[in-house]
What we know:
The complex is a heterodimer. By secondary structure, chain A is of the alpha+beta class. Chain A folds into two domains: 7-102, Beta-grasp domain (Ubiquitin-like (UB roll)), CATH 3.10.20; 105-240, Alpha-helical ferredoxin (Fumarate Reductase Iron-sulfur Protein, Chain B, domain 2), CATH 1.10.1060. Helices cover 37% and strands 13% of the residues of chain A. Chain A has helices spanning 32-43, 77-80, 105-113, 136-143, 152-156, 158-162, 169-179, 187-194, 208-212, 219-240, and strands at residues 7-13, 19-25, 62-65, 68-71, 85-89, 96-98, 101-102. In chain A, the strands form two sheets. Chain A has a five-stranded mixed beta sheet with strand order 2-1-5-3-4. In chain A, strands 6-7 form a two-stranded antiparallel ribbon. Chain B is an alpha/beta fold. Chain B contains 14 helices and 20 strands. In chain B, strand 9 and strand 10 form a beta hairpin. In chain B, helix 3 (85-106) crosses helix 10 (391-410) and helix 13 (463-481) packs antiparallel against helix 14 (494-518).
Amino acid sequence: MPMTTDQIKVSIQRGEDRTDVFDVPAYENQTVLDVVSWIQQYADPTLSYRFACRVGMCGSCAMMVNGVPRWTCRTHMSKVCDGDTVTIGPLRNLPVIKDLAVDMDPFFDKWTAAEGVHHPSASRDDPIASIDPETPQRVTANAGIECINCAVCYAACDTVATQPDYLGPAALQRAWTLLNDSKDSARTDIIDAISGNDGCHNCHSMGSCTVYCPNELDPMSAIAGLKRETATAFFKRRGNA
Amino acid sequence: MYDLDHHDTDILILGTGGAGLFAALHAQQTAPEGTKITVAVKGLIGKSGCTRMVQGGYNVALGGGDTVERHFMDTINGGKWLPNQDMAWRLCEQAVVRIRELENEVGCFFDRNPDGSLHQKAFAGQTADRTVHKGDLTGIEIINRLMEKVLASGVEKLQEHRAIGLIPTKGGDALAAVLMIDMRTGKFRLVRAKCVLMATGGGPTMYKYHTPSGDKTMDGLAMALRAGLKLRDMEMVQFHPTGLLAGDHTRMTGTVLEEGLRGAGGQLINHAGARFMFDYDKKGERATRDVVSRGIYAEMRKNNNPEQEGVYISMSHLGPEWVPKKFNGMVKRCADSGFDLAAGKVEVVPTAHYFMGGVVVDVDTRTAMEGLYVAGEDAGGAHGSNRLGGNGVANSTVYGGIAGDTMGADVGKMVLRDPDPNVLSREMERALHPLNRTPDTVMPLRKALQDVMWDEVGVMRTKTGMERGLSGIAQVSDALMDVGVDGCNLAFNLTWHDWLNLRSLCDVSEVITKAGLVRENSRGAHYREDFPDAGALDKSDYTVAQMDGDAVSVTREPVAFTIVRPGETVLPDGAPETLVAAQ
């Protein structure tokens, strides 16, 4: 939808009880990040936000735009302008540092808690493994590998909103990728990490993670895979007991 | 007056791109037990920095006819005989180990051939299919996996801590501490360490069009300059030929449209609607980056239409259905900024991409200052006058790992040192300077600097242009000192950091320009219209810039051909010129 006005009315949420409104000049090629940057550079030098790569590779600049989590660097204003207004706030489900910048540590702490790290089965002295890229297992591992940990899914997740300790979609999707990676050697550790009280069984399959992922990844299906896998592992262990 | 928090550690790493993260892992592997390792970064761990933005891939000779010798010769030829040969050799040799480490220990998964072996392709300037990759998002795979390892490793994290000054001991021969701003609170923090790695990355964002991450402002090299270190090859700024042109009000402008578009048959069209690259090179659009950048720049200068500044890249003749299949990421990125890459044409412009220059180091990343190590884009020497596509991430990961190993081995012999209080207070005053002046907008000055550098010290250079450039830089630099920043709340105060960023960019811009004036020939990325010849290769020299009192001085040092001389090769007799099948 082309914008019809020369000015955009931008509401910025700043802390619990404060919203500031700015008139920002509209341009043909303009992203939400450009609007936020313009406000800081020309209207209110104290406005805080975070960005780095500006092209959807680093996952630093996600914010709530009209109540929906988005990469601001890759969201064209024409996509989000409601007439001539837009509302921007800090990413949901994470502590706010100031204005639009949130503390992403809880998100990454959960990534680590879900065993979201490669567990080597070989060293730099070994040759690189021959791996058929077309096996179903590898295709499944590849499905989630391009996650840039922007926390959009985490902000979209209503379960995280009500159960703050829930590991969340990104960390669980990473665990699922590792479970399907034939090079990873810590299957049991991963299953233990994601099947506890804060793990995959909290997911109600509402699917916001998959709907809002800017990379078109599918964490909901990854979590469904984990649920199946933990059930299988549970029965296998009982069988071995 | 201003709070200064004191903090001690054993090994301090500045930056979390490929170099910083690898250094953190290797330091943990090699340092004595109980060594405290701290990682500090201007943004978030793994999210700032340019390794993450690598599209193409990782150069490494892994057989199939390719050898370390061949990779080395391509690197030397690509760098037009200016590289430090020992550094280039170590880069090529250790890349073989590092790629196995990335796959086997760090957990990266690079693209495979149907038979399960690694897929390798050839970029321009390579004589073998050498580049390992993960689609066209190789950097994300490498940094995500490294970041996970470092986050899980328990190193101390200082996120959103920007380094603003290297503080030596009173004698000045050893590094004692790094002065930082904790950006979240706006307070100063002085971190003493026995060993410090500077791996803050280059990032020539002082040009109107540039590709690097928005946090990159060459703070590392500006700090090194002030600390009296020697910087080499500072005139060498690599331009990528096809940056997106979307207006000066959007951060999308300057971001890269990948090399593969031209490789696949993408055409460059000038303001008159004609292809032009064959006027400049027989390979047309498939010529190397520097040649295509100059071709585009020359066409831009011929055009008087202010409505069209750049040229166009056109893919539609390849099939509007085929293009999104092959270049999905690029098509989506263009669409998000309002352009149709698949069926339409997209305006492009050469864009400052990579900085070959940097601190003079030895092959173990040591510098002339005890306790300071430099790796990645902050270090000079490995690439000479031009970096081959795929050698950047190899360089950051190889030398980051080496730095970690070297610091791990050295730290036991080192002690915490006392910082020179005079330098410390000078560096603090420097950062506080704008807070005592009337607030004004910083951005117009940044744009002014970017215009000067693009116009006068850019893709094609002349003596008179660079001299105009020097006075333009000085004007911006002086004007900046009169621009204040409201200091009422320094917590996450991006405007203060915009000021500090521009301060670094002005300082390094001057060095680039002075080094450019000293090099009176054309090599790789540095093209002098008034000295278009390369000069005698066997008499090659490289520039060295250093503070001399209050001024920057630039001298020349002869290149030491420690492994191979111009006209010779380390390849065996009868080795084919290239192993790459003709396109």
